[in-house]
Design a protein that fits this description.
702 residues, alpha/beta, Rossmann fold, Beta-Lactamase, Alpha-Beta Plaits, 4 domains, eight-stranded mixed barrel, five-stranded parallel beta sheet, 26 strands, cyclic-guanylate-specific phosphodiesterase activity, FOG: PAS/PAC domain, PAS, EAL_dom
Length: 702
């Protein structure tokens, strides 16, 4: 197992022995085995042997047997220095008839002197030198990592849209481009050595002087933010807020200053608004914007002010395309198809990426007589387009479902339900089919269907007919903490299981998901505390519905429950789907930060789709990233999916985020994911969701 392999690797030792006898080599192996090492030795007799061996691998240590005829100790050390840039500790070892003094050995370049007839001393010297050598290597690696991190930080600071400066003893020592631009300077050198007091407006200078004096004593006791009048290079004053925090530059302590202006806040609001309505894969409007627009359209239609139609456009063979070119290539295909749709929709029409392989259009000024030609034109655009991706020519067709919007339509949810029924019928009929939905006599509306669902959910809550199911989330690196994702099932009055897909969509539409989330959370917390009382280090991943993100009382309620049940820190991880986080960005960011303040963690579910998924992390402090399940399809044979997973994992490691691969399909995928650095895995292959917490987490740890 992976954990066991890691432990064994730490105890291995690679030893080169320059000696003309097999006996000494065997004795060294026995000595090291007795002290807990698995020693692998390579015996060498001259400089050619040594050069050849060093070109193949670098040992942890080299033992030189004194008195060798073909190569001396000095020649051995010179040969190492010429052949490799890596340091190899050398121990000079006396043997009967060939003795050397400690001083002579160390002057020649050896780290120490020992003897084969004092095996305990030899073992201690080897252990000391290997430990020292490894510590030095780790220190060099850490130093290199720190330098690389400093370079990355500087690059991030330079590219940041925030105005940032570093101040040492009241003087500028660094300022990024945004800071220079804010105050009207061209180059960073223009500000170096200039007092930050010069950036403050006349009326606030005395206050800021006092702050600077106090900051020399201790920055930790000072306010971290000041509202001030600021002054740019031409003397023009403007309002802004300075935020302060301790920092260092080139090893010297200093103060970091970030300046926020009203323009910054306005730009951020605009960015958040744009991000919350844009689909990250195609650049079109997203589902939430489509839903909001459809509601407005239906309201106007009921008032008799317009007529329109909703089209759901399903790409027929998209799954085959995804299998052929991988997730990233499939996203590129969707993006290119989106550009084709943009070329034919009307200027007032709302085109969006609805979900997966489905696009949606709100087509204005359409009726039952005109919509057929409109839909056929969409179909023709799809059929005629050929995309060239990864040296493959790709083509698809579309099945289209249409729901008309006029003054007689009940509401927006009914419009969507009809469009979904129509596209399902079109898919069943076959490629290029177009179905315009016609209501049947006596047919229940979505509102009527949801009303029945609400009654069933309320009854189940009252009778406690919900059940928690658990699926293990397993570490690939030896961590034996017991992690489970929590799922919910509803029972009918006969005790038969009702799957989430049969009640959660209605719960989301009607707001009943709030009550279900509360039930799940309370029962998860009580189960969790019992696990800890039983001596099990258990962590639970719990999904939050979109409605709960907007529940203003949730955090207060949760804080009370965590305190009441004395829930261990960071044992609860809350999950929100990436698509929900994008469309409810402000609410998600606020919830994530609030959860961290309550010592709970936060995970983004179905992460990784779109051209730049990590853009979301600039606004949401996620601890875990759970990769979108389609990345696991044919992972062991799909180079495209492997490349995508590796790119996400590498970036996550850089940002210090933990990664989870869900829906893992087979054993072969485990080794692929482990090699990529994925932290945790989950899937029915390992264990299906179960009402019992019985997974053996030690099975993956050795």
């Amino acid at each position: 197992t992976f954990g066991k392999q890691a432990v064994e690797k730490e105890k291995k030792i690679e030893i080169f022995i320059i000696d003309d006898s097999f006996n000494n080599e065997e004795n060294v192996v026995k000595i090291m085995r007795a002290s807990g090492y698995a020693a692998h030795t390579t015996r060498l007799e001259d400089d050619e042997d040594l050069i050849d061996a060093l070109q193949k691998k670098i040992p942890d240590i080299l033992l030189y047997s004194n008195g060798m005829d073909l190569i001396s100790l000095a020649e051995t050390i010179q040969c190492i220095e010429k052949t490799t840039s890596e340091a190899v500790p050398v121990i000079s070892v006396n043997r009967p008839g060939h003795e050397m003094s400690v001083v002579d050995a160390m002057r020649t370049g050896a780290k120490d002197l020992s003897a084969y007839d004092t095996p305990e001393h030899l073992e201690m010297v080897v252990h000391r030198e290997v430990t020292s050598h490894n510590s030095l290597a780790k220190a060099q690696l850490l130093e290199s990592s720190i330098k690389e991190s400093e370079k990355r930080c500087e690059a991030l600071l330079d590219s940041s849209r925030d105005a940032i400066a570093y101040i040492h003893e009241g003087m500028h020592v660094y300022s990024n481009h945004s800071y220079l631009e804010l105050f009207g300077f061209e180059e960073s050198e223009d500000l170096e050595g200039m007092p930050i007091l010069d950036m403050v407006g006349t009326d606030d200078r005395d206050t800021f002087k006092s702050f600077l004096r106090d900051s020399h004593k201790s920055i930790t006791d000072l306010p971290n933010k000041m509202e001030l009048n600021l002054s740019n290079s031409d003397g023009t004053e403007f309002k802004g807020a300075m935020e302060f925090s301790p920092a260092s530059i080139e090893g010297e302590p200093c103060m970091q200053v970030i300046i926020r202006t009203q323009n910054n806040n306005k730009e951020l609001e605009e960015q958040l608004a744009l991000l919350s309505q844009t689909d990250s894969v195609t650049g079109l409007y997203n589902r939430q914007f489509f839903m909001d627009s459809m509601q407005n359209t239906v309201s106007l239609a009921i008032e008799g002010k317009l007529s329109a139609a909703v089209l759901l456009i399903h790409l027929d063979n998209f799954q085959d395309i995804k299998q052929s070119i991988g997730v990233v290539g499939a996203d590129q295909f969707l993006n290119e198809v989106a550009r084709q749709f943009e070329s034919v929709v009307g200027s007032k029409d709302i085109l969006s990426h609805f979900e997966g392989s489905t696009f949606s259009i709100i087509a204005h000024n359409q009726t039952s007589t005109s919509i057929d030609a409109y839909a056929k034109n969409i179909n023709k655009i799809v059929q005629d387009y050929i995309a060239n991706i990864k040296d493959q020519s790709l083509n698809t067709t579309a099945s289209i479902g249409v729901s008309l919007i006029d003054k007689n339509v009940p509401d927006s949810s009914e419009v969507l339900l009809r469009a979904e029924r129509a596209v399902k019928e079109a898919i069943n009929k076959g490629p290029t089919s177009i179905i315009v939905y016609q209501p049947k006599e006596g047919e229940l509306t979505q509102k009527e269907i949801d009303a029945k669902a609400i009654n069933n959910i309320k009854s189940a809550l009252k009778d406690n007919r919900f059940v928690l199911y658990f699926q293990p989330v397993i570490s690939l690196h030896g961590d034996t903490d017991e992690r489970y994702e929590v799922f919910v099932r509803m029972l009918d009055k006969k005790g038969e299981i009702i799957m989430p897909s049969d009640f959660l969509p209605a719960a989301d539409r009607t707001g009943m998901s709030l009550a279900i989330d509360r039930w799940v959370l309370l029962n998860t917390i009580t189960t969790l505390t019992q696990c800890w009382k039983d001596g099990k280090r258990t962590l639970f991943f719990v999904k939050l519905a979109a409605n709960s993100l907007k529940d203003t009382s949730l955090m207060t309620w949760l804080k009370d429950q965590l305190k009441k049940y004395n829930v261990p820190k960071n044992s609860l991880i809350f999950e929100v789907k990436e698509s929900v986080a994008v469309t409810s960005l402000k609410y998600t960011a606020k919830v994530a930060k609030s959860l961290q303040a309550l010592n709970c963690s936060f995970a983004l579910d179905d992460f990784g789709t779109g051209s730049n998924p990590f853009e979301l992390l600039k606004h949401i402090p996620a601890d875990y990233l759970k990769l979108e399940s389609s990345f696991m399809q044919e992972l062991s044979t799909s180079n495209e999916n492997q490349e995508a997973v590796k790119a996400i994992t590498d970036k996550a490691i850089e940002l210090n985020k933990l990664t989870i691969a869900q829906c893992v399909q087979d054993a072969t995928s485990l080794s692929v994911l482990w090699g990529m650095g994925i932290n945790f895995i989950q899937g029915n292959f390992l264990q299906e969701p179960s009402p019992t917490l019985d997974y053996d987490f030690t099975s993956m740890a050795g």
